[in-house]
Amino acid sequence: MVMFRSLFIITLKYGLLAALLSLSFIICMYYLGRHPLLVSPFLDFRIPLYAIFLFFALREFRDYQQQGVLYFVQGMAGSTLLVLWAGVAGALGLWLFAAAEGGFVAEYIQKTMEYLKGFPEEDIQRIGKEVYERNLELLPTTNAAQLASLYLVQSLVIGLLAGVIMAVMLRKQPST
């Protein structure tokens, strides 16, 4: 039970710090003229950010709480907790920012609309004309809560993939 409490506290600390840094990046990118939710998923700043915070959190837990031992299951539990903290806190912060900054959602809708209208005809045929038109119709009804939930889902996917890598990298069995 003490082990889980330590893991809980360490991941909470690093998860909230990751969320704060992530939210800072979002706000800076927005005010610098690049909408943060329209960045390619392969260039998302959360990939290296989560990997770094996962590394330090799991290493701290392994080295200072577990006397140098970290099982894969412990690494995955810690990774999942950290990503949940970072994702939920980041999504909440994004929702608050989007609600306070009226242009955030409007700019997202406008830029996404421009992007979708620039699709070549063969891409529209490939995804289906009905799907394409439905997305165009639903886009103007997008709100801050939907953007925050999109952010949360993306954070969970990014973080859990990074978590598997970090849990494998940092795992260390006791020597017998």
How would you explain this protein's 3D organization?
The protein is built from seven helices and no strands. With 176 residues, the protein is an all-alpha fold. It has one domain. α2 crosses α3 (72-100). The longest helix has 30 residues, at 2-31. It is elongated, with a radius of gyration of 19 Å. The model has no long low-confidence stretch (mean pLDDT 94).
List strands and helices in order, with pairings.
Blueprint: H1 2-31, H2 46-65, H3 72-100, H4 102-117, H5 121-127, H6 129-138, H7 144-170
Please tag this protein with its features:
79% helix; mainly alpha; 7 helices; 176 residues; single chain
The helix/strand order is: HHHHHHH
The fraction of residues assigned to DSSP E strands is under 5%
Which word captures the global form? Answer: elongated
DSSP strand tally: 0
Short recap of the structure:
The chain has 176 residues and is mostly helical. The protein has seven helices and no strands.
